Amino acid sequence: MERSFIAKNPSVLIFLAILALFTITVTVLSEGFGIGFISTSFIKTLGKTLCLCLIAVAMDLIWGFTGILSLGHFAFFGLGGYMIGMWLMYERTRLIVVDSLSSADIPPTDAEIVDAIGNQIFGVVGSSEFPMVWAFADSLVLQLALVVLVPGLLALVFGWLAFRSRVTGVYLSILTQAMTLALALYLFQNDSGLRGNNGLSGLQNLPGVTASQDVVSLWFLWASAFALGAGYLLAAWIVSGKFGSVIRGIRDNEARVRFLGYSVETYKLVIFTLTACIAAIAGALYYPQAGIINPAEIAPIASIYLAVWVAIGGRGRLYGAVIGAAFVSLLSTWFTGGQAPDIPLGFYTIKWVDWWLVLLGLSFVAVTLFAPKGMGGLVDLWTERKSPSRHGADLGPDDGALREQEASE
């Protein structure tokens, strides 16, 4: 009898149990729950960290398992944030406008309300008219759909053009970085329709919700934890089956996989588009907790940081990507938030706010040279996960599979 997916992958169940325990513990200790041991601001930090862990899982799928070093996945992350941010900003502004005009002797028309909303949102860039990109901003359902559709369509078109041309390696990485830079530069323009450098703000205020930020922060923490759990489960299911074997084969020897008759470009396109959608969902949950999004969030350096997180955590290991993203993100918050004490050396004082990026870069180089398995390798040692001693056993599930001695020759 064939074993279930969870039975074949007990680490998935362990991860989900740890995630659930973490979420429950943080909830009980939060201000929203009543104990107040963990502040609301730190609850938001933890919620945002879970979102970064989710995009790290997506990055590990595309880089660690498929071998495509994408330096553009934070563009999809940002687009997801922009899509949900448009509805949040529109609806919040609409409620304010309607409330302010309700005391007028003559009730305002729908057109007057729309004009007032446009003036409130776009007055900062010298406009009052809604651009076409805001056509569905008044509908939560449609904007939620666009969270996935817009980044997914961009990834589909970009991936189709790149993969059909068989662009690989560093050239593909440069192309993804160029895409990110082009998108960021476009969004910086005031006529982009997304308020240029000002971005979208006030996203932490949910329209029509009277609950305090203590409670709202918990809602987003739960949603982020659920999304991370679902994303991890999906990624583990993908890499454990035939699809996962093919993409690993593409990573190790693309020419051989193509020679065996597989459509390499199709597999690449599917995984590239899927991970873009996962990144967009993570962004849609991240920016309402951050409260603001602007084009600087989509800068190419953000995607480079993402690659560093996965490398430090251990690429090719889903739990490694989560560990790396959580560790580096929380450590970054500690160092750049001024919580790390300065170190006086007499002739010079080390201020971690200034030196954090240097430390992060050195850590990346050290892990690449001396610990290619990353922090995930420590988990392997702790759980004593070693390669099975086959002693001539079949290397595959099928009759006639290569044996250990044959495979090593």
What does this structure look like?
- The strands form two sheets. The chain has a two-stranded antiparallel ribbon with strand order 1-2. Strands 3-4 form a two-stranded antiparallel ribbon.
- Mean pLDDT is 87; it is low at 390-409.
- It starts with a helix and ends with a helix.
- Helices cover 67% and strands 2% of the residues.
- A hairpin with a 4-residue loop joins strand 3 (343-344) and strand 4.
- The chain is mainly α and 409 residues long.
- The longest helix has 29 residues, at 73-101.
- Helix 3 packs across helix 12 and helix 4 (73-101) crosses helix 5 (110-122).
- The protein has helices spanning 5-8, 10-28, 40-65, 73-101, 110-122, 140-164, 169-188, 213-240, 242-259, 264-290, 300-313, 318-336, 352-370, 376-383, 404-408, and strands at 200-201, 292-293, 343-344, 349-350.
- The chain has 15 helices and four strands.
- It is globular.
TL;DR of this structure?
The chain has 409 residues and is mainly alpha-helical. The chain has helices spanning 5-8, 10-28, 40-65, 73-101, 110-122, 140-164, 169-188, 213-240, 242-259, 264-290, 300-313, 318-336, 352-370, 376-383, 404-408, and strands spanning 200-201, 292-293, 343-344, 349-350.
Structural class by secondary-structure content: mainly alpha
Mean pLDDT score: 87
Helix content: 55-70%
Q: Which band does the percent of strand residues land in?
A: under 5%
- Order of adjacent strands in the largest pleated sheet: 1-2
Largest sheet, if any? 2 strands, antiparallel
